[in-house]
Amino acid sequence: MDLGEAEADAGGGSPEPAEGSVEGARSRTVALFTALALILGTVAMATRTGGGHARAAEGGAQVRRPDVIIVAVDGLCSADVSADAAPFLHQLGANTVTYRDAYAPSPWASETLRGILSGRYLPVASGAEGWTPGLADELGHRGYRTALVPGHERHALGAVEGDSLEARAPAGFQEVLWPDGVHDPAGAQGADVVKTALRWWGAAEGPSLMVVTLADPRAPHHHYRGGRIGPDPDYEGPVRSGMDHEELLRLGPSLDAADRAQLTALHATEVGAADAAIQTLLAGAERRRGRAPIVVVVGLRQSPLGEEGRFGLVPSLEPEDLRSPLWLQLPSPTEGHVHGVLRGVVGAPVSLLDLEPTLLDALGVPPRLDLDGRSVYPGAVVPERPIRAFTSRGICAVLGLDGDRAVILEAEPPAAHVRTRGQQSNQARAGRWGPCSEVTGVDADLRLQLARWMKEAEVRVPGGEVPDLVDAPFSP
User: Fold this and answer.
1) In this structure, are residues 370 and 118 in contact, taking their beta carbons and an 8 Å threshold?
2) Which whole-number Å values give the CA distances from 27 to 3, 31, 425, in the listed order?
């Protein structure tokens, strides 16, 4: 109802008083206030029955401009999160919105982080043609203080310590904060990352966005004793804490069952250390502000413990390797939610690129339509579209997921691989992805879509040209 309709309805059926009379002035005043009341009532009803950002706006000032904390963990997958290995994250998953089927847009942590913060597969540098504001740009424009706390220098998105503020503030962040040890090969310790983050958080005024990353944690995290799983103290094999990925790649094919068990146990203690760091960070952040922020916890990529002898950082476009844990904790704007937060499970496939538009939606900011991601705010309809991932680092490969079918295109040599899930006895229980020898018309259509998208997005062979994979042969 617009203002003209409201005024007409409010005055309908009454004789119009003479212009300029006291009675006429009173009548017009009553009509105006009636119209405003109708408009406010209509807006209130729309807010109560609306979706996305309309629901986020309900409740007034207490939820109008909440703080936002994003914690991204390099080398954390869904299988790592158990009551024994990660008790805090396990409990967090029970009290948040859990995205059960989320996929990273790249097998590399730095590329995935860029995608999360930009909502795009191929972010463009600020000021260049085709640049789109990222999450930090959008919130900074609305008065938020923004900071990035990288746990490893590769997470700093191109920032180099000692450069100017502009060079040190990638992806629209006003500040990049450097924890002690961030330039070590294994990255900064979780405790140092948390200390740096909380120091800034306690001093920041007004609403704030803070993005914290934890490096793929290695030495000396084997000292963690918070969980029940730990390495064998009597083990004397080649596996030790602090091994870099090149060593893992070199030793991988020769590791026996005892070696792999020790490697798995070491990784479990690393997950436990990250779990403890996240708990300290979130508890400290809420204590310093006195109110609950919007919290996102996400895994950037799988751990370096691969299957079939793949250890270390090996770029893999296998759907199962790209599945990432994703939790979104939203202080509830309505009554009737246990512990004052929204809870539930989103089972539809989503991309980590959907995170930026989802957060903007939760904050009442209409997401831009030129983003590759789409809002999957709780209660909203998850858009039906293929989920994609790609990389040109090391290999040129693209993945497309459509329902329970997936196709991987590889450029060298040209090949298309089909994957499916839930249709074989060993996949059905966990919904895991596995090989499939049968090629359907859906697979052929998906191959064509991927090949065309590669050309549009200019996905290139490392150091070369954009490949034409429209007729790439299907291989088992």
Assistant:
1) no
2) 17, 6, 76
The sign one gets for the Cα dihedral 329, 333, 339, 345 is: negative
Whether residues 335 and 402 share a domain: the answer is no
Looking up residue 209, the CATH number of its domain turns out to be 3.40.720.10
Q: Which burial class, exposed, middle or buried, applies to 150 when counting CB atoms under 10 A from its CB (0-12, 13-18, 19+)?
A: buried
Which among 84, 398, 118 is positioned nearest to 224, based on CA atoms? Answer: 84
Q: Which of 366, 383, 400 is the last residue of a domain?
A: 383
Position 274: which residue type?
A: A
Q: How far apart are CA 404 and CA 421, in angstroms?
A: 6
**Contact criterion met (CB below 8 Å) for 6 and 26:** no
Question: What does the alpha-carbon distance between residue 123 and residue 182 come to, in Å, rounded to a whole number?
Answer: 24
Same domain, 29 and 111: no
What is the mean pLDDT of the segment spanning 414-427?
Answer: 76
pTM of the complete model: 0.80
Q: For residue 340, which phi and psi values (nearest 5 degrees)?
A: 70, 20
What would the mean pLDDT of 179-183 be, rounded to a whole number? Answer: 87
Q: Is the pLDDT of residue 162 over 80?
A: no
What is the structure's pLDDT at 43? 31
355 neighbors 116 (Cβ within 8 angstroms): yes
Helix (H) or strand (E) holding 148, with range, is: strand 145-149
What is the tens place of the pLDDT at every residue in 205-233?
889 999 999 975 554 444 444 445 577 87
Which of 383, 401, 426 is where one domain is finished? 383
Residue 474 has pLDDT above 90, yes or no: yes
Do you know the residue count of the chain? 476
Q: How many domains does the chain have?
A: 3
Question: Partners of 294 in the beta sheet?
Answer: 68
377 neighbors 330 (Cβ within 8 angstroms): no
Cα dist. 470→393, 398, 416, 438, 446 in Å? Answer: 21, 12, 10, 19, 10
How many percent of the chain have pLDDT more than 90?
37
- Residue 86's alpha-carbon distances to 76, 77, 126, 332, 444, in angstroms, are 11, 11, 38, 25, 41
State which residues form the domain around 34. Answer: 3-49
